[in-house]
Amino acid sequence: MKIAIASGKGGTGKTTVAVNLALSLQNAQLMDCDVEEPNCNLFLKREMEPITEVTSIIPEILEENCTYCKKCSEFCRFNAIATLPNKIMTFPALCHSCGGCMMVCPEGAIQECEIVTGIIRKSTTKDQNGPELYEGLLDIGQTMASPVIGEVKKYIDPTRTTIIDAPPGTACPVLTTLEDVDYCILVTEPTPFGLHDLKLAVEVARILKIPHGILINRSGSGDDSVEKYCADEGIEVLMKIPQDTRIARLYSEGIPFVEEMEEWKEKFMQLHNSIKDRYGKREEA
């Protein structure tokens, strides 16, 4: 079963939930798809090894063939090509590798060029305890996170429980991460800001028709607007993690709190079992 941990914004404790949940399960995988800033391993402290590079295809202009007709730049909806009267410019960071510019060029002045945009790493076999960790890492200066996320997800083992740490927000990288997951835990905080971004995340889950529930982190630190919203919308509040100085201290030291607060490991196991009992049948269908 694939369970994604997502949030409408950063800083809600999404990665904390993903790591502690994965550590509470037997034989689980943990996929860090927050490829712009993967930080699950800040808590797990695993020895990681690279297993593959992620590449993308971008256009390379053969200026000796180019007539500056502008058909390529007019076709590109992402503004990755600009045609001037006597010069053509490409912006690889904006390219979505659709190949359309090459198809519309009447002069054969564009060819494919492969560039490395990221890398996939996994925990080594020396780490026999706890979840098997995979992480994607987007190269500095690159903006296309989705191909790296897609590559991470290729390593999901369908016979095991997989916890996926999604990027924050509601943009394309989140959509790529949530594609084909069985359930989504939306992590939020009990504040007006948390509620605002939670509503956006709920809308994404509903559009994608992904079963979802809410986990309130730092419960007791704000107001009850999130709980009222969930009650009004019929969304289940799966768990509340209280504002707790011991949890905060362990977090600041990079220690998953289930490792020193064993009662929480049982709570996370119950959370997983509850979700699996109700939604795990999707993978058996």
UniProtKB/TrEMBL annotation:
<dbReference type="Pfam" id="PF01656">
    <property type="entry name" value="CbiA"/>
</dbReference>
<feature type="domain" description="4Fe-4S ferredoxin-type">
    <location>
        <begin position="57"/>
        <end position="81"/>
    </location>
</feature>
<dbReference type="InterPro" id="IPR017900">
    <property type="entry name" value="4Fe4S_Fe_S_CS"/>
</dbReference>
<dbReference type="InterPro" id="IPR017896">
    <property type="entry name" value="4Fe4S_Fe-S-bd"/>
</dbReference>
<dbReference type="InterPro" id="IPR027417">
    <property type="entry name" value="P-loop_NTPase"/>
</dbReference>
<protein>
    <recommendedName>
        <fullName>4Fe-4S ferredoxin-type domain-containing protein</fullName>
    </recommendedName>
</protein>
<dbReference type="InterPro" id="IPR002586">
    <property type="entry name" value="CobQ/CobB/MinD/ParA_Nub-bd_dom"/>
</dbReference>
<dbReference type="GO" id="GO:0016491">
    <property type="term" value="F:oxidoreductase activity"/>
</dbReference>
<dbReference type="Pfam" id="PF00037">
    <property type="entry name" value="Fer4"/>
</dbReference>
<feature type="domain" description="4Fe-4S ferredoxin-type">
    <location>
        <begin position="86"/>
        <end position="115"/>
    </location>
</feature>
